[in-house]
Design brief:
CATH class of the largest domain: Mainly Beta
Largest sheet: 6 strands, antiparallel
CATH topology of the largest domain: Jelly Rolls
Structural class: alpha+beta
Radius of gyration: 23 Å
Oligomer: single chain
Number of strands: 22
Shape: globular
CATH superfamily of the largest domain: Jelly Rolls
Helix content: 10-25%
């Protein structure tokens, strides 16, 4: 039934008190699979954006061993994808890590290969550990290195594996599965040959599109995602350091770079965006919030974040999330080394639907009061 707070006394908010006649009326509507708007209005039209998810930190020290254990329990052929997924305690019903975003840890041993498939959901990967990993996306073979950011856009055939002379590989999978399911638009298809055959020279995508500011003059690209399928860590970290050296930085984010589609300058995919940010030694950002959900992975260093008044201490490879409209701020724990955070988000959807909204915290010199440790 309708909930009340002190603002609900203002004109235009539901303030109906129940009585016997109304209860009978509601029962009549219920039998028609209908209802009275004023009984739900204050819930479905909140005073400000309301997130169902809560902030969570998933420590790598605990996750890693559980992910590795799956190597001896199921094969890629049996599981389809050998993934330990991350579940927000308030989003269990849709298997989401934050908002309508999915996150999981995939693990593969040398010589293994996951069967080829495609689906309506978009996917990305952030490589955490190992050597010799690769993916094939619509015939484009891409090698995977630690801290690389890799795309497998919706509708593209993709399979992945680890070379026989490689190492056990672990990476974070990020997908928009809950979003696509909410829109009732998801689907899944297995490759008719089980596995793809590479159709192009190895790493042709990063070799063609990976040079900053340069595009092949004769190449035409009409798809909704970036033709650059791998954004290498070395190039990304160098870009952050160069930007920092000339004074670039943001009081709310530190030094941050958004991964872009080289053809458009926009987000890398239609439904998910991604960034890498660097916190300089001892740097602490000010608090701000915005509409949209974010899942972070610590690429380098250690520190802490304060999210909705709760402090989360993080180490390299830890994963944590910031729900929509939650205050967030970050701090680097080291006085001598920088820290880097990879993140992916649902900002492309929020922006296209004109739901973007953000603000900085004005009180307490821009920092939150920590209400929970």
């Amino acid at each position: 039934m309708t909930t009340f707070d002190e603002r609900d006394t203002e004109l235009g908010r539901a303030r109906v008190r129940d009585n016997e006649d109304l209860e009978a009326y509601y029962a009549e509507l219920d039998r028609l699979d209908a209802g009275a708007l004023w009984t739900v209005a204050n819930d479905i039209e909140p005073w400000e954006p309301h997130a169902f998810a809560v902030p969570v930190l998933w420590p790598w020290a605990e996750l890693r061993g559980r992910a590795l254990r799956a190597l001896d329990l199921v094969s890629p052929e049996e599981a389809g994808r050998r993934v330990v997924y991350l579940r927000n305690p308030q989003r269990k019903d849709i298997s989401a890590a934050c908002g309508l975003l999915f996150s999981g840890i995939q693990v593969m041993r040398p010589g293994e290969r996951a069967p080829g498939h495609r689906h309506g959901a978009s996917a990305l990967r952030f490589i955490m550990e190992g050597a010799g990993g690769y993916t094939i996306v619509d015939g484009h073979h891409v090698d995977l290195g630690e801290r690389d950011f890799v795309l497998t856009p919706n509708g593209t055939w993709h399979d992945h594996g680890v070379a026989k002379d490689g190492e056990i590989c672990l990476w974070q999978d990020g997908l928009d599965i809950p979003l696509v399911n909410a829109l009732e638009a998801n689907w899944y298809e297995t490759h008719p040959d089980d596995y793809q055959t590479a159709l192009y020279p190895d790493n042709d995508s990063p070799r063609t599109f990976g040079s900053p500011g340069l595009l092949p003059a004769s190449y035409r690209w009409q798809k909704s995602y970036s033709p650059l399928l791998r954004y290498g860590w070395d190039e990304t970290y160098e870009a952050l350091q160069k930007a920092a050296s000339v004074g670039h930085g943001d009081p709310f984010e530190g030094v941050i770079m958004r991964f872009t589609n080289p053809h458009t300058g926009g987000h890398v995919m239609a439904t998910m965006g991604a960034s890498m940010q660097m916190l300089r030694p001892g740097e602490a950002t000010k608090a701000h919030r915005r509409t949209g959900n974010i899942i972070y992975q610590v690429a380098k260093g250690s520190g802490h974040s304060v999210i909705a008044g709760k402090r989360f201490d993080w180490q390299e490879k830890d994963i944590f999330c910031v729900p929509s409209w939650a205050w967030r701020e970050h701090a680097n724990a080291s006085a001598s080394e920088d820290a880097c955070l990879f993140s992916f988000n649902d900002f492309p959807v929020i922006e296209k639907l004109a739901f973007s909204r953000s603000e900085g915290l004005a009180e307490n010199d821009g920092h939150q009061y920590i209400t929970e440790n």
